Amino acid sequence: MDYSVNINPYGIPKSVMEAMQEALNNVQRYPDIRCEELINMLTEKFSCENGQIVCGNGASELIMAVCHAIRPKRAVLYAPGFSGYRYALKTVDCGIINCYDYRRMEETIADEKPDIVFITNPNNPTGQLISPDTVKKIKKACAAAGSTLLIDECFIELTGRPDEYSSVQDIKQQDEENNVIILRAFTKSFAIPGVRIGYALFSSKALAEKVRSNIPEWNVSVIAQSAAKACLNETEFVKRSAKLIARERKFLSDVLIKNKYNVFSSDANFILFEDVSETAGKGFTGGDRRLYDRMIDKGILIRDCSDYEGLIPGYYRIAVKTHEENITLLNQLLSLE
């Protein structure tokens, strides 16, 4: 059982599966090269203009396209954070400055004057939402430093609080001087990581067009576009999913805390926790074998977070799944003691 990938525990909505199956009838044709029908639906959803949205073969393609369009020399990243930003930045030989506290990010941006800043809301791997006040301060610092700000909101819908924490409202007003990009994907909310479909909203149409020119032609398949359009009609499904996740996240966290794991408060569909027996250097709970390896022996995969900047061996992330699946995880985890 795979608890390392954070997707909707309800799986793919029936309407989305049907849309993909129907799209098979059209795969003999090239897809819409500019995703016009999908973008029209997105502009209506977010009350922005067509030129402000770019669709990609997953959020990862858009991150790469942004880096190749801007060609940054210096970037500020919050750590620990999603490794995909580092991967893309390395392809353009960009220097990376790590910031380990959102409260100090303003100062870091002012001092370093980076070409681009990446933040994730909610953060991955902690799952914590960033307060609107903090995001506002980071935006202001980026504007003053002339930095492009990319806000990754790929998990925000599953928090159940996008209206409170999303920065999409700021994108509605075009601003060709202060570049803000909001990144989203259908992957997590609709359990379709294999389909590859994401989108970005830009405050600057000029930057949007520059990023679009760094993406291959026909990059979003017929099946992916059909799936995305069906996803946009599933608003109640997302709300229902967020309620399940909130309930099960609390259940998992409470049990882990009672069993002496250090659990980070999360707002998302995943939880970061610390096995203190590993991080304290006092010997592992299971002798000389790490928790990750012992769970693998039981046929369960959890995310080893030791490769995240700022984390060490002993930090793990688990996905929030259905109640039955969460009980299976806990039973196997606690049987190790």
Write a short abstract of this structure.
This protein has 15 helices and 11 strands.
Number of helices: 15
β content, as a range?
5-15%
Helix-strand sequence: HHEHEHEHEHEHHEHEHHHEEHHEEH
Largest sheet report: 7 strands, mixed
The termini sit apart by 20 Å
Number of strands: 11
- Average pLDDT reading: 95
Low-confidence stretches: 282-286
**Amount of helix:** 40-55%
Going across the major beta sheet, what is the strand order? Answer: 1-7-6-5-4-2-3
Query: Could you say which structural class the secondary elements and strand pairing correspond to?
Result: alpha/beta
Radius of gyration: 20 Å
- Overall form: globular
Commentary on this structure:
With 337 residues, the protein is α/β, with parallel strands linked by helices. It is built from 15 helices and eleven strands. The protein has helices at residues 14-23, 36-46, 59-70, 83-90, 105-112, 132-145, 162-165, 168-171, 187-190, 205-212, 222-231, 235-258, 276-279, 291-297, 323-334, and strands spanning 53-56, 74-78, 95-99, 116-120, 148-152, 180-185, 198-202, 262-263, 270-274, 303-304, 315-319. The strands form two sheets. A seven-stranded mixed β-sheet has the order 1-7-6-5-4-2-3, with helices on both faces. Strands 8-9-11-10 form a four-stranded antiparallel β-sheet. Strand 4 (116-120), helix 6 (132-145) and strand 5 (148-152) form a beta-alpha-beta unit. It starts with 13 loop residues before the first helix and ends with a helix.
